Amino acid sequence: MQKQIFSLATLGLFFSAAALAGGLSFTELDTDGDGAISKAEAAGSATLAPLFADADSNGDGKLDKDEFAALVQPTEGSAPAKQ
Questions:
Q1: CA 3 centroid distance within chain
Q2: Among 8, 9, 33, 64, which residue has the least CB neighbours within 10 Å?
Q3: Residue 1: pLDDT above 70?
Q4: Cross-strand bridge partners of residue 38
């Protein structure tokens, strides 16, 4: 059962990221132009806001271009392990 839930969550994350890619770009989300998306800036996107904490892989409270790219174009095996 947990494996099915994880699979559905991973699938949901993939489609959410795909929707994000089809919506706003990094530049559009980075409204202050500092080269990062803050949590406040992410709050402007209903898709990005709930994914923000997981996407902030280094825990600095903002998404840099690499973190955003990893969210938008996940690679095989990049989904966080859930137990």
A1: 22
A2: 33
A3: no
A4: 62
